[in-house]
Structures are given as C-alpha cells and as structure tokens.
Amino acid sequence: MPYRRLPKSDAARLKALKTLLDNNDIYTARNRFIDWKTLNMAQSLYDRLLTATEQLRLSRLALKRYNTRMGKLHHNAWMYVSHFIQVLIMSVERGEIRRSLLELYALPQDATAVPDITTAGKLMEWGKKVIEGEKARIKKGGRPIYNPSLGMLNTHYDIFSEAVRQQQSLQERCQRDARDIQELRPQVDKVILDLWNQIEKYYENEPPEVRFKACRKFGVIYYYRRHEEHNY
Fold it and tell me: Cα 5 vs. chain centroid, distance in angstroms?
C-alpha cells in the first residue's frame, strides 16, 4: 500500500501546491470540500515561496557573476601590493631607504620578502598598511616610490576594497534570502498537511484504486516501498 510523504524540496512544495491550486474542481460548489481559509492560505504561501525561491536564485546568480569578476580585481590588487613591497625592500637593500623606516609599513627591519597576501583579508590588511606607510614616509620628506606609484597602488586597492564590500553585501543578501525561505518552510508544510488531510478525509470511503487516483489529482504525493507492487 503506498504511503504519503510531505515534500522535501522547495520545488516539490511548490509543485504540490500548484497541482492543487490549478485544479478547477476545488472551486466548484459540488467539489468544495476544502475550506476557503485553507485555500487562501495555500495561495498566499505559494506566492510567497515562489517569490522567495526566485529571489534566492537571482541573488546566487548575481554573486556567482561577481565572484568571477573578483578574480581579476584580486589579481590586480595583489600584483600592485606585492610589486610595491618588493620595490620597497629592494630600495632598502640598495640603501636608498633606511631600514628603520620599514616599521612605518608594519614590516620588520630585516624583511626580505613579501608577507602572505594570498587571501582577500590579508591583501586588504597589508595594502592598507603599505599605503599608510608610504604616505607617512613621504610626509617625513622621503622620495616617493615609482613603478608602481602610490597613486596606482591606491587606485587598485580602493577598487578591490569596494569590490570586497560589494561581494560581502551580495553574500549577506543570499544568506538573508535563504533565511526567509527557511522560515517559510514550516508554514508551507503545515498548510500542505492540512490540505492533504482534508483531501484524504473526503475520499476515505472510496476503494483504493479510486481514492489514490483522486488524491493525487489534488497534489497528494504517494510513495511505494521498495519491492512493493505499484497497484494504485
């Protein structure tokens, strides 16, 4: 004997509700065995869940596209920050800049290599330190580093920083959209259960071959156990 089971995915929830709501028989006087309050609630929740899932899909698509763009911006910012630090260290090794001034950039006086700037967080952290350090050294009367210049470094750092903030905003929007759906699911499952109970109650005295077919027509989902014959 087949058994019913509530939908597990949002697509299945929407399909179950749509099957019922699109069935014109439930709106005729002869077949009006589902109360209007439940039907109205089902329509409202269907619309809300459909809108919420579409919003989440669009948010994820926007984030995916932005992540693709971020790769190039990350590379550009990494290249400028890394190159600037390398030029700074070489200037120190040639005696053009005093080693003690490396502290303005939050670098140790014996620094010989670029610090770890592989992640977005580290890149933003060191980019800010290097920009502030260069400004402080110039303010003390030091000659600016060129190729790359502070202006070019600042430009690419600002572009990347703004992109990171935008990316975080898109991530938060995806999380918010997902939470909205998560909050809707118990309400949707509750109304589906109520609908199915009313539908099965109406057909409970019909023979199985009639009852299961009629209930499926109104969106009730049935499953067969493994190795069980599909008789209905």
Answer: 29
- For residue 112, report the phi and psi dihedrals to the nearest 5 degrees: -130, -5
Q: Which pLDDT score is estimated for 29?
A: 55
Where does the chain have alpha helices with state H? 10-21, 36-93, 120-139, 150-202, 208-217
**131-135-136-140 Cα dihedral, nearest 10 degrees:** 150
Q: Is the pLDDT of residue 141 over 80?
A: yes
Q: What is the DSSP letter of 207?
A: -
Whether the CA torsion 15, 17, 20, 21 is positive or negative: it is negative
Mean pLDDT of all residues in 130-153: 94
- Hey, what are 176's tokens? 């918010």
222 DSSP β-pair partners: 4
Question: Tens digit of pLDDT for each residue in 42-60?
Answer: 999 999 999 999 999 999 9
Which element (helix H / strand E) includes 116?
none
Coil, strand, or helix at residue 66?
Answer: helix
User: CA dist 13 to 3, 6, 179, Å?
Assistant: 17, 8, 17
